[in-house]
């Protein structure tokens, strides 16, 4: 009876060990897949932030004298706020949580700058200097540094 029990333990161990290795492997594959998906999302997001940064100065200047440009500027700003909100609910894989937290912090600063910009436009108190005063362009530059960090970690 004891010999039979030992034999059963060995058989069970032979099935459990490969199964646990398989499941651990699946978890690692899932982590890589999650990381790749996140990196793809954050890369697209940062490209959008850079496009925003490219369009913003010219449009802000044109909006000083052109009502249509002013409407386009407000749309650009509110669209960016919407993109920030969508990104903020994205969940980062464990290995990228620290950088994701940094992106969220920068998103808060960027959102605050956009809000100040929109409030000034609505109040009619905005000027060409407002872009420099809000620091929006400087805040946007940090996203490229974060993208470099994310890319290195995901390799």
How does this structure look, described?
The chain is mainly alpha-helical and 155 residues long. The longest helix is centred in the first third of the chain and has 62 residues, at 2-63. It has five helices and no strands. It starts with a helix and ends with a helix. Helix content is 87%, strand content 0%. It is elongated, with a radius of gyration of 25 Å. 17% of the residues are buried. The chain has helices at residues 2-63, 67-88, 97-123, 130-134, 136-154.
Task: Give a topology summary.
Elements: H1 2-63, H2 67-88, H3 97-123, H4 130-134, H5 136-154
Helix pairs in contact: 1-2, 1-5, 2-3, 3-5
Distance between the termini: 54 Å
Poorly predicted regions: 19-33
The topology string of helices and strands comes to HHHHH
How large, in whole angstroms, is the Cα Rg? 25 Å
What count of helical segments does DSSP give? 5
Structural class: mainly alpha
**How big a fraction of the residues is strand?**
under 5%
Helix proportion of residues, in percent?
over 70%
The tally of beta strands, per DSSP, is 0
- Estimate the global geometry from the Cα principal axes: elongated
* Average pLDDT score: 79
- Note the main sheet: none
Question: Could you list some keywords that capture this structure?
Answer:
155 residues; mainly alpha; 5 helices; 87% helix; 0% strand
Could you write a compact summary of the structure shown?
The chain has 155 residues and is mainly alpha-helical.
């Amino acid at each position: 009876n004891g010999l039979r029990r030992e034999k059963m333990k060995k058989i069970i161990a032979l099935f459990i060990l490969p199964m646990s290795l398989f499941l651990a492997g699946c978890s690692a594959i899932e982590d890589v897949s999650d990381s790749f998906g996140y990196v793809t999302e954050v890369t697209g997001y940062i490209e959008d932030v850079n496009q925003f940064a490219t369009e913003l100065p010219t449009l802000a200047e044109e909006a000083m004298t052109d009502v249509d440009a002013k409407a386009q500027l407000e749309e650009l700003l509110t669209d960016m706020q919407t993109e920030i909100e969508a990104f903020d609910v994205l969940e980062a894989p464990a290995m990228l949580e620290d950088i994701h937290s940094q992106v969220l912090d920068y998103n808060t600063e960027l959102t605050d700058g956009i809000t100040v910009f929109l409030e000034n436009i609505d109040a009619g108190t905005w000027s060409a200097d407002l872009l420099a005063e809000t620091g929006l362009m400087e805040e946007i530059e940090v996203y490229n540094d974060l993208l470099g960090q994310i890319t290195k970690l995901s390799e």
